[in-house]
Amino acid sequence: MITLYLAEDQSMLNSALTQLLELEDDLHVVGSASDGVTAWTEIQQLQPQVAILDIEMPALLGLDVADRIKAAGLTTKVIILTTFAQKAYFERAVAAQVAGYLLKDSPSDDLIEAIRKVMQGQTVYAPELVVNMLSANNNPLTERELAVLAEADKGLPTKTIAANLFLSAGTVRNYLSAIFSKLGVHNRLEAIKLAKQNKWLV
Amino acid sequence: MITLYLAEDQSMLNSALTQLLELEDDLHVVGSASDGVTAWTEIQQLQPQVAILDIEMPALLGLDVADRIKAAGLTTKVIILTTFAQKAYFERAVAAQVAGYLLKDSPSDDLIEAIRKVMQGQTVYAPELVVNMLSANNNPLTERELAVLAEADKGLPTKTIAANLFLSAGTVRNYLSAIFSKLGVHNRLEAIKLAKQNKWLV
DNA sequence: GTGAAAAGATGACATTTGTCATATCATAAT
DNA sequence: ATTATGATATGACAAATGTCATCTTTTCAC
Q1: Residues of A with Cβ-Cβ distance to B14 under 8 angstroms
Q2: Which residue of chain A has the CA closest to B153?
Q3: Residue A31: its pLDDT value, please?
């Protein structure tokens, strides 16, 4: 019998999956949560064999939970279950040595299959991710540029951004200009949109 | 036996729900799709008693499918199943006289219950929506202002916005200025953020 | 049918942005 | 030791943006 914990903040999917997994003779869902903090607390107590974690959850990202599971030395294997194939998330997941990374864009039977494979020691990655990995869309922005862009994203004018980051207004505009040129756009809005699309900016 | 059709583009949820609904003795899923066009085609052929439609799907919105079902005079009852409580969507759904409007933020049992109620002629609306409706956080922007803001949101410069809407650049700036003053902000970015927060802008 | 909004326009002006050249200093890589 | 890169800054200039006053037409409610 494989014991499972499910952390997924979309109730419809959470409850549907829970019931579905329970139908399998060799699977048992010992608990579920719709936020990261609850998940982390309960996983420590229940020590399930496999934890299925959504990434985007209130309070704590699934990836953060994965990090903690690893840091705490639990034997719980982690399967990340998320909506989109985003490189940044996938990289973090790999770094946290998760056992599986599935997309919600695949049928529920894939999840069941993945659980069994993971318990046999295999790692299961959605093929889309691997492809995505190879087509390196790496963040061209430096840390400072990102900081400036993040301020700009708040809708603040140059002066305020400068004040917030203890820079001169000119420097801020330089950074923005550098950002635009790297991203091939011509104003803040476009830069922000692009950076968000690529998840360089949250 | 109630015949169902399920249109949902997130495969994990689609397959999980299909299997779950099939477990109920009085429910039968006659078909499912992950895009609006397929859904519409098959609903016409299969004429299910209830169609469960996601809103955001490729090719055709669930709401569009609902409109067509109504226009074609089918007896198929529609339950909209969507992620967020957005007033605009809800209003369209009510206008299309859908029988139910559920959020994915509710457990799957709610859906099953809703299906049975709908077949008894009841309408089922998520309570969050009704609350949202009453707390009239009414949009102070006119249709035209919204259109301008939507263009601005694409990151386009004034000229291009003007060209796209067949307006003069000056008019566009006037509209933006009017928007800022109504919203109490001083630039596009802030206006867009505020409008999105209030769901006046998608 | 009058009056109030809303849609649309123009022109002028001040401010904010975006671009560019150029410079210093620190650090990391070869 | 030299070179590249990143962080930081200035000054100058052009282009885009935001503000205001003012004007016309259409539409819709009373």
Answers
A1: 107
A2: A189
A3: 95
Q: Which helix (H) or strand (E) holds A54?
A: strand A50-54
Q: Which of residues 183-202 of B touch A (CB under 8 A)?
A: 185-190, 192-193
State yes or no: pLDDT of A150 exceeds 80.
Answer: yes
CB-to-strand D under 7 Å, chain B 182-201? 186-188
Q: Do B19 and A20 touch (CB under 8 A)?
A: yes
State, as a whole number of angstroms, the distance between the CA of B136 and the C1' of C2.
Answer: 32
Q: Is the CB of B171 under 7 A from strand D?
A: no
Residue B135 is predicted with a pLDDT of: 42
- What amino acid occupies position B158? T
Nucleotide nearest to B189 (CA to C1'): D17
Q: Give the pLDDT score at A183.
A: 84
- Tell me what pLDDT residue A199 has: 72
- Tell me: the pLDDT tens digits for B28-84? 999 999 999 999 999 999 999 999 999 988 878 888 899 999 889 999 999 999 886
For residue A156, which amino acid is it?
L
Lowest mean pLDDT among A51-60, B65-74, B87-96: B87-96
The CA-atom distances, in angstroms, between A60 and each of A7, A63, A84 are 11, 8, 18
Distances (CA, A) of B91 to A32, A116, A175, B125, B149: 34, 45, 44, 12, 21
Looking at the complex, does the CB of residue A97 fall below 8 Å from at least one CB of chain B?
Answer: no
